[in-house]
């Protein structure tokens, strides 16, 4: 028996009723283009964000095992792994669900520009690929898919106005680990960098004090210290305690960003841009370079749509008062 999920909006037809359960024999009857269902993890879907063709070709079938055709058990386990109980990884996503956007109306949003500058380079969107190792586990071309897909798409993404915006750095380089590494090593690292700006994951105040170009707030996707604070929560805390610090040094965050609305929430509290890791790993594992291009396109559409609904024509216009965080309402 399978739980039935449909596209019906809440309050209409099945949307406000308890979940329905149907036998697989009934699912098998719905395999036509105009009436097509597929089963994934015990739930029946009649739509797919990637387009109807994807479910039509698998109509009336249980495609739960489909991911195993392009990802091995090792890959699935690695991409979805988290430290200890996975609290930080879950909270990365959950922290955005605790906030609400406050839309503005009656504003001229005919021309919307989602462009910004990331790591000192003009970018078509306020996003970048967080360093994530082992992309090769999901696809033979691995990091090449991510690099080609993001560069191709970001170079071509022109928002609603002008083309030609150059993409920022998109990397998938595994981190270098050394238990002895500390702040005293920064002068040597600066010399080795040869004038290339250094952006550090860590303490924003210390990053500023040491003359770094910027800082990335991250709990490493929940893979290191479990129950570590999320990047978004740290950003909001810094903005509340020292708003000037957010202006004095570039701050980026990653962890749990999945939607264009998540991106705008982070920017509202002063982030220059946000990084995504797992979404691009899964996209390239499933569809290679095309999957990465599609992922960027989805984010671009969501960011532009959300900007319009918020009454924004540029990213510089978003402010903290456009975001309401629930845990703060009840204090």
Characterization of the model:
Residues 203-328 form the FMN hydroxy acid dehydrogenase domain. Pfam families: Cyt-b5, FMN_dh. It comes from Kwoniella newhampshirensis. Its cofactor is FMN. This protein is α/β, with parallel strands linked by helices and 331 residues long. The protein has twelve helices and 16 strands. The chain has helices spanning 24-27, 52-56, 73-79, 87-97, 143-156, 186-193, 204-209, 231-241, 243-248, 260-268, 278-310, 326-329; strands at residues 2-4, 20-22, 31-32, 35-36, 38-40, 43-45, 61-62, 99-101, 116-118, 121-123, 127-129, 199-201, 214-217, 250-254, 273-276, 323-325. It has a five-stranded mixed beta sheet with strand order 2-1-6-5-7. The protein has a five-stranded parallel beta sheet with strand order 11-15-14-13-12. It is globular, with a radius of gyration of 21 Å.
In short:
With 331 residues, this protein is an alpha/beta fold.
Number of helices: 12
Please outline the major beta sheet. 5 strands, mixed
Task: Provide the low-confidence segments as ranges.
Answer: 4-17, 156-175
Structural class: alpha/beta
Q: Measure the end-to-end span.
A: 44 Å
**What does the average pLDDT come to?**
83
Write down the Rg.
Answer: 21 Å
Helix content: 25-40%
Share of β-strand residues: 5-15%
Q: How many strands appear in the DSSP assignment?
A: 16
Shape assignment: globular
Strand and helix map with partners:
Elements lengths: L1 E3 L15 E3 L1 H4 L3 E2 L2 E2 L1 E3 L2 E3 L6 H5 L4 E2 L10 H7 L7 H11 L1 E3 L14 E3 L2 E3 L3 E3 L13 H14 L29 H8 L5 E3 L2 H6 L4 E4 L13 H11 L1 H6 L1 E5 L5 H9 L4 E4 L1 H33 L12 E3 H4 L2
Parallel strand pairs: 1-6, 5-7, 11-15, 12-13, 13-14, 14-15
Antiparallel strand pairs: 1-2, 3-4, 5-6, 8-16, 9-10
